[in-house]
Design brief:
Helix content is 36%, strand content 28%. It has 332 residues and is α+β, with helices and mostly antiparallel strands. α6 (216-227) crosses α7 and α6 (216-227) packs antiparallel against α8 (270-299). It is globular, with a radius of gyration of 23 Å.
Length: 332
């Protein structure tokens, strides 16, 4: 059907060479990308020539800005004002983008939250309306130029043409949220490997987006440190036995973790494992809650659809129960 996307190939690999959305090793990142691309090409049955790249990380900043322009100069001679055209909208958005930024930063997205025509506010699309003054309230998403260039270098090294960047939580939101959720208020938390991304919607506008530098890999490392085992074994145990809320875990479920490099096997139980997991998930959710509450209160909005969780980290058992307790909102 029209406007539908069909997934015909999928490839994944460990994100070696990347740390919290930033390339720290070009060679390792290229190998990781190459593996994922080859798997996707094999499944799809054709070669990938170009790609959009999802971006996340602490280096991405969201800034609320506004701009205003005059549509008609004479209220006396022209009391109804002039009709707002596409060029007026483009001009007011450029005015909203006219902010001071660090030389190493650039605008990734300009997301219009709402417009105001004279005294009429909360307008989604002012095109065709009449008035004297047009104002735009936008969310500017900025990235660091060097980080952008490193990702482009990795794509070039595997022979893929760069089509553009997309902020990951925006892409995730269009995969898992429906129109009612975006309209009536919802916060999406995408729990990835190195980061957890947050995006808040209200009245079909993006109110705020942010990234927390903690994710599923943080939990895996906590398990590895606490139980003195390898990252690989910690990940296996987390996925097989992990529970996000320790009070729902069973201490009678014993877990044997194979010793590494000739060491003895490690004995634990689901309750002890889940206490490690809950501590880190609690921290991630508290940081997310502070981010959400700050911008929810500042924008005077309601999250009628609560919290929606997505991403690999959201697959942990009982994660919604912990979310309900911390956010005091429906979490699913």
């Amino acid at each position: 059907q029209e406007n539908e996307i069909n997934i015909i190939g999928f490839g994944e690999s460990n994100s070696n060479g990347l740390r919290r959305g930033i390339v720290v090793d070009i060679e390792s990142t290229v190998k990781s990308l190459e593996k994922a691309v080859n798997l996707a090409e094999e499944q799809a049955g054709f070669e990938i020539e170009s790609a959009y790249v999802g971006l996340t990380g602490e280096h991405i900043k969201a800034i609320s800005c506004s701009g205003a322009i005059t549509i008609s100069n004479s209220e006396y001679m022209n009391p109804e004002g002039d009709i707002i055209k596409t060029e007026h909208i483009e001009k007011v958005l450029k005015h909203a983008q006219a902010i001071r930024m660090a030389p190493d930063s650039k605008i990734l997205h300009t997301i219009s939250k709402k417009y105001k025509v004279d005294d009429r506010d909360k307008i989604k699309n002012p095109k065709g309306l009449s008035g004297h003054r047009l104002e735009a309230n936008v969310l500017l998403v900025t990235i660091q130029r060097s980080i952008e260039r490193d990702l482009k270098t990795c794509l070039k090294d595997i022979g893929i043409r760069f089509d553009g960047f997309v902020l990951e939580p925006i892409a995730s939101s269009y995969s898992v949220l429906d129109n009612d959720e975006r309209n009536l208020g919802v916060a999406l938390i995408d729990i990835g490997g190195g980061t957890s991304d947050i995006i808040i919607f209200y009245e079909n506008a993006i109110i705020h987006t942010a990234a927390i530098p903690l994710g599923g890999e943080s939990i895996t490392k906590d398990i590895a440190y606490a139980l003195n085992t390898s990252i690989k074994q910690a990940e296996i145990v987390k996925c097989k036995y992990g529970i996000s809320k320790a009070s729902l875990a069973n201490s009678d479920i014993e877990i044997t973790i194979k010793g590494t490099n000739g060491r003895d096997d490690i004995l634990t139980n689901q309750k002890e494992l889940s206490e490690i997991i809950e501590a880190r998930m609690h921290e991630i959710f508290i940081l997310a809650k502070n981010e959400i509450n700050t911008h929810q209160d500042a924008s005077n909005i309601n999250l009628n659809f609560g919290i929606v969780l997505t991403g690999g980290g959201s697959q942990l058992t009982n994660i919604s129960d912990l979310g309900n307790e911390i956010f005091q909102l429906d979490t699913k």
